[in-house]
Design goal:
The complex is a heterodimer of chains A (389) and B (264).
Chain A (H helix, E strand, L loop, with lengths): L17 H28 L7 H7 L17 H14 L1 H21 L2 H12 L5 E4 L15 E4 L3 E12 L6 E8 L2 E8 L5 E5 L11 E12 L3 E2 L6 H35 L1 E2 L2 E2 L4 H29 L5 H25 L11 H13 L4 H13 L6
Parallel strand pairs in A: 1-4, 2-4
Antiparallel strand pairs in A: 2-3, 3-7, 4-5, 5-8, 6-7, 9-10
Helix pairs in contact in A: 1-3, 3-4, 3-6, 4-5, 4-6, 6-7, 6-8, 6-9, 7-8, 8-9, 8-10
Chain B lengths: L1 E5 L2 E3 L5 E3 L5 E3 L5 E3 L3 H15 L2 E8 L4 H10 L3 E6 L8 H15 L4 E5 L10 H9 L3 E12 L4 E8 L2 E8 L2 E5 L11 H9 L4 E2 L39 H14 L4
Parallel strand pairs in B: 1-6, 1-8, 6-7, 7-13, 8-12, 9-12
Antiparallel strand pairs in B: 2-5, 3-4, 9-10, 10-11
Helix pairs in contact in B: 2-5, 3-4
The chains are: A alpha+beta (389), B alpha/beta (264).
Bound molecules: flavin-adenine dinucleotide (FAD).
């Protein structure tokens, strides 16, 4: 396969600063050289390439839009988005790892933690020495996390947590779990360290999607944690939702990478593959698929870009993030399916990569708020009517 | 330890290179420019010496203000300072004249132990600047370095492995010296996101020829006796032979080809 060529039909390149482009290029090279050679193996074996964690940390991708005083890179949100794009061009599992570490776990500590908690955890997490996860979803509460059953009870020494969390990315690898639980009926965030008695995890088996990513169940059985492990500024469901908004922003960019990779591979293939004595790229029906992909990717790029600039100016609201996440995930999944189709039988093999993206994107469309839940969020914003119940 | 790395911007594609009216390699029209792919290896070599021995690493290029971008990349990789020599009089310089400019910059920075370049530039493939620098500064030159075995700034000694077409050579020289490195000497580090952000805020000092004490008459078209008459893209890679037959036959043929080519 030819080296990755990024689709840039509307000359987005002109809109990015030199710094943003340099950030993107560094991550792009890293993913091409360090990550791509091993991805087929890891996807097949259902493993995350843990050996890359120190190198990802040296590159500075963990919590890269958080401030330098906590050991982070402090890049702006457009550059951060481009980082996500490049990571997910490799694999949604790689981007998920980085999103959960930075956009969810580090962001939760940064937003709702004490200064001591930030000083203790953020630099170590930026260095990849401590891995974080984010436990919100439960077996019986997915789209409706407010119904969560997990509880926290105040004790003399701290808090006792009871409950279970499902579908938790990095759950088994994590050194530190940000767990959301109800304390006196109100959702609060707690830091649960690996090895705390009563805290265990179990990897979810049989996944066809995000195979190169650790997805686990967290079990909290009379798990007692020190009082200092409450994230004191967290208060109510809005707190985890703020974290989700930060991670969803990254997803809106990330899926662009997967879509651009699928487009690049499908285009290259269509120009080389001959049927009926000519390259299949020369057939109208194939062109129409490529044109759809190129048009939708371009629109999604513009949406993500504008959202990024709005976020840096403090104008982006959660409903804007919902629209970008919803649109871009659905667009990327459709691109992956079309690319798979253009590649015929070859398209179903790991060697051609697009089916891996396709399978991954099924999860990405669902997690951090499903496609339809985001429709309800935007719908409520447009009409003033909540349609969740 | 004080090292100076010389970097260069080159057109992104081979089509971007042509010969100028006065017979020098030039960039043809509007295309993109990148850091010469060999340069990160040169930078990495200097940075690893710094990591091991302490000291400082500087990067220099001669050209126009556009080249500031590649100096920022060097800063993002971790060099301490970058300098741009930009002067209209440099336009149309041959590699000897460029070496004169770079030697001037090296003197201006001063007190160096080691000067590092790539083994050849991607655009002209000339491998002249390294040797010319050594000549102008009257210091030893070690080209095609694939490993630094020993580096002792106090004892003013360097020992390296040179990778040549017909084998490897271990050579020693006194410091200061100029070396050119080959790809693969080290794996270049990726510019970190923090490094990039900090680099983008740095000012890159720009020097004129007067600033570095180089006479404009000795560079540019006037100071460049060599002229390139024509430039052809490298020949396409020679033909691929598809070996056919049963597995045993294919293996036997492959072994034979390897023996024929004296690879083993
Ligand atoms: C690989 C993977 C990794 C994940 N990582 C994490 C993680 O790290 N942390 C974490 O907390 N969670 C994580 N999740 C969980 C994820 O956020 C949830 O799966 C998601 O919120 C949806 O919840 P659910 O699966 O329970 O689906 P449900 O909520 O049961 O939804 C099922 C279907 O019903 C629809 N639906 C539900 N409610 C409505 C409604 N009101 N109106 C219309 N349609 C509705 C949904 O759109 C969906 O189509 C992960 C999930 C996956 C697959």
């Amino acid at each position: 396969m030819k080296d990755f060529v990024a689709l840039d039909y509307f000359n987005m390149e002109e809109l990015y600063t030199d710094e943003e482009k340099a950030v993107r290029n560094s991550v792009r090279d890293f993913v091409s050289n360090q990550f791509m050679p091993g991805i087929e193996h890891h996807f097949e074996e259902c493993t995350f390439p843990t050996e890359l964690i120190p190198r990802l940390a040296a590159l500075g991708v963990f919590g890269s839009n958080l401030p330098e005083e906590y050991g982070c890179a402090g890049i702006n949100n457009v550059a951060y988005g481009l980082v996500m794009q490049e990571l997910e061009r490799g694999d949604s599992g790689l981007r998920s790892f980085v999103s959960v570490q930075g956009g969810l776990a580090m962001f939760a500590i940064y937003s709702f933690g004490t200064e001591e908690q930030k000083q203790e955890w953020l630099p170590q997490m930026a260095e990849g020495k401590k891995i974080g996860c984010f436990g919100l979803t439960e077996p019986d509460y997915g789209s409706d996390p407010g119904g969560m059953i997990t509880t926290a009870k105040k004790t003399d020494k701290g808090y006792v947590l009871n409950g279970a969390k499902m579908w938790i990315t990095n759950g088994t690898m994590a050194d530190i779990a940000v767990v959301w639980a109800k304390l006196d009926g109100r959702v609060r965030g707690f830091l649960v360290e690996k090895g705390t008695p009563g805290f265990s995890s179990k990897e979810t088996k049989g996944k066809f999607s995000l195979r190169a990513s650790d997805t686990s169940e967290l079990i909290l059985a009379d798990c007692e944690i020190p009082a200092a492990n409450l994230l004191p500024e967290s208060d109510g469901l809005v707190s985890p939702l703020a974290c989700l908004s930060s991670a969803r922003y990254g997803i809106a960019w990330g899926v662009l990478g997967a879509a651009m990779d699928c487009y690049h591979r499908a285009l290259t293939y269509a120009k080389e593959r001959k049927q009926f004595d000519k390259p299949i790229a020369g057939f109208q029906l194939v062109q129409r698929k490529l044109v759809w992909m190129a048009s939708e990717i371009t629109k999604a790029q513009l949406l993500a870009y504008r959202l990024g600039r709005m976020k840096d100016e403090g104008q982006a609201k959660f409903n804007h993030v919902s629209m970008a996440k919803r649109n871009n995930c659905a667009m990327a999944l459709e691109c992956a399916r079309l690319a798979r189709d253009i590649m015929g039988a070859n398209g179903i093999t790991s060697e051609y990569h697009v089916i891996r993206h396709m399978l991954n994107l099924e999860s990405v469309k669902t997690y951090e708020g499903t496609h339809d839940i985001h429709a309800l969020i935007i719908g409520q914003d447009l009409t003033g009517e909540a349609a969740f119940r | 330890m004080k090292a100076i790395v010389f970097v260069k911007e080159v057109p992104e594609t081979p089509e971007g290179v042509s010969v100028s009216e006065n017979g020098q390699v030039q960039a043809a029209g509007g295309g993109n420019f990148l850091t010469d792919p060999i340069d990160p290896f040169a930078i990495e070599t200097a940075l690893q010496l710094k990591d091991a021995k302490g000291g400082e690493v500087h990067a220099v290029t001669a050209g126009n203000s556009r080249a500031e971008k590649i100096l920022k990349e060097a800063l993002a990789m971790g060099v301490d300072n970058s300098y741009l020599v930009a002067d209209d009089a440099i336009e149309g310089s041959d590699p000897n004249a460029i070496a004169r400019v770079l030697a001037g910059a090296a003197k201006k920075i001063g007190d160096y132990d080691l000067l590092v370049t790539g083994d050849r530039a991607a655009d002209d493939n000339a491998s002249i600047v390294t040797a010319a620098l050594a000549q102008l500064l009257d210091i030893p030159v070690l080209t095609f370095v694939s490993e630094i075995r020993e580096f002792d700034a106090d004892a003013m000694k360097i020992r390296v492995v040179r990778t040549l077409e017909n084998g490897r050579q271990v050579v020693e020289a006194t410091l200061p010296a100029v070396i050119s490195v080959v790809k693969g000497i080290h794996e270049p580090r990726y510019p970190s996101l923090l490094g990039i952000r900090k680099a983008s805020k740095r000012e890159v000092p720009t020097w004129s020829l007067a600033d570095i004490g180089v006479d404009p008459a000795t560079v540019g078209a006037a100071g460049s006796p060599t002229k390139i008459r024509s430039l052809d893209p490298p020949p396409a890679p020679s033909g691929v032979e598809m070996i056919t037959g049963s597995a045993e036959e294919m293996a036997a043929t492959l072994v034979q080809r390897i023996m024929d080519k004296k690879v083993l």
